[in-house]
Amino acid sequence: MTSIRTTFRDLLEPRREAGTAAIEFGILAPVLALVLVGMVDLSSVMYQAMQLNSAVEAGTFYVLKNGWSSSTGAAPIVAAVQKTGMITGTPTAICVYGCPIAGAGIAAQSGICGSGSTTLTCSNGYAPGQYVKINARLSTTTLIASGIFGFFGGSLALPDPLTATATIRLP
């Protein structure tokens, strides 16, 4: 049987907790590392996506400034996109003569960019126009290849490749 003195001594004296912090750190360190790697991966992919969008934007600025030339075609636009140095693969730029369709893009019409067409109005009442579509892609490099180390399957996998598209109407 314990005496009252022993009970009070147990309450008042500090307990020995020498290894508790190390054990808690050992349990939490992998979780913290996983969160850190995920944040670094996500921020890296977001940076690459912004750079890709900037590259496609450079192509649209070229089109706005210089227009579409049937003699040079897409080459100068593609060169403007590639000058950013971020693109893997070959970006594309095509000129389409067509009608805008709400939510569906451009419906191609008979006619060639630069020469116009005999179509005066589209089925929706809009006038047909010349549009330049610019596409680019970038292969991403991530630390987490598929999911968060496989714990959640592929549901949290980051996109590969990233793609960016811009469509601009020529004046």
Structural overview:
The chain has helices at residues 4-12, 20-66, 75-82, and strands at 92-101, 105-108, 129-138, 162-169. A four-stranded antiparallel sheet has the order 2-1-3-4. The protein has one domain. It has 171 residues and is of the alpha+beta class.
List the helices and strands and how they pair.
Elements (H helix, E strand, L loop, with lengths): L3 H9 L7 H47 L8 H8 L9 E10 L3 E4 L20 E10 L23 E8 L2
Antiparallel strand pairs: 1-2, 1-3, 3-4
Helix pairs in contact: 2-3
Specify Rg, calculated over alpha carbons: 30 Å
Mean pLDDT: 77
Number of strands: 4
Order of neighbouring strands in the sheet with most strands: 2-1-3-4
Q: Indicate the multimeric state.
A: single chain
* Count of distinct structural domains: 1
Helix fraction by DSSP (H/I, runs of at least 4): 25-40%
Shape annotation: elongated
Sketch the major β-sheet: 4 strands, antiparallel
Q: In percent terms, what proportion of residues is strand?
A: 15-25%
Structure annotation, total helices: 3
Distance from N terminus to C terminus (CA atoms, Å) equals: 98 Å
Q: Give helix and strand order, one letter per element, not per position.
A: HHHEEEE
Uncertain spans, ≥5 residues at pLDDT below 50?
Answer: none
Q: Structural class given helices, strands, pairing?
A: alpha+beta
